[in-house]
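pinging the channel bc i need a second pair of eyes. not urgent but kinda urgent?? the chain im working w is below, pasted from the shared doc
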Amino acid sequence: MFIMHRKMTIKEGFADHVIEKFNKKGIIEEQEGFVDITVMTSKPRKGEETVIALIRWESEAMWRQWEKSDAHIAGHKAARGQPKPDYIINQEVTFYTVQAVKEARN
């Protein structure tokens, strides 16, 4: 499994805007190899909130296929030239390859 970890630091009070974007139906759900997106928030502090999205793929190859897809590229072209929302302070993206998973015993 391959995971994209997107950490967004945003102005306090704007987490719902970011979460709403991730909750909207999109074309990513239809992509081969897409597993799911988990969105998490932390308690606000010092006027900031953190929203983390874990986007899971079956493999890095499947994620790369999505990144190179016409649909994904078209989405970025449509957003080109538009200003970043002013409530986003910082964004960090990190990629991980899952090495082990331990599940609960029943």
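so Residues 2-97 form a domain with the Alpha-Beta Plaits fold (CATH 3.30.70.100). and Strands lie at 2-11, 34-41, 48-57, 88-97. — does that match what u expected or am i reading it wrong
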